[in-house]
Design a protein that fits this description.
single chain, about 120 residues, mainly alpha, globular
């Protein structure tokens, strides 16, 4: 397993970039996947990475697996590359629908960060 200090730093980074609660993310994944005629089961809604982020949000730090750590690193990298988490850009960019939806599927809502 990864060094405890590395896990602590990753935990902090992950929770800094993932600014949606587990309930907000679960709701978003269901809405994102719902169609005109069908809707997936709640536990099957959303892309696999979004489901994994949701599962991580519901875990304690000591219960993380190597796979969880891999996904956490990936999410931190993706969100950091796509968004300025500390200083979300002007509201127009934060509200860019496609970009916002991509980030929300990872647990980061740019509009929430811009507040």
């Amino acid at each position: 397993m990864t060094d405890a200090l590395d896990v602590d730093a990753l935990w902090e980074d992950f929770h800094r970039v993932v600014n949606m609660t587990s309930q907000e993310l679960a709701d978003w994944l269901r809405v994102r996947d719902s169609g005109e005629l069908t809707e997936p089961l709640p536990e099957e809604a959303g892309a696999p990475i979004g489901q994994h982020v949701l599962a991580i949000l519901q875990k304690r730090r000591m219960d993380l697996t190597e796979d969880d750590l891999r996904v956490m690193r990936k999410v931190v990298d993706l969100v950091t590359r796509e968004a300025d988490v500390e200083n979300e850009p002007e509201p127009e960019r934060a509200a860019d629908t496609d970009r916002r939806h991509r980030l929300m599927s990872l647990g980061h809502d740019p509009l929430k960060a811009a507040r």
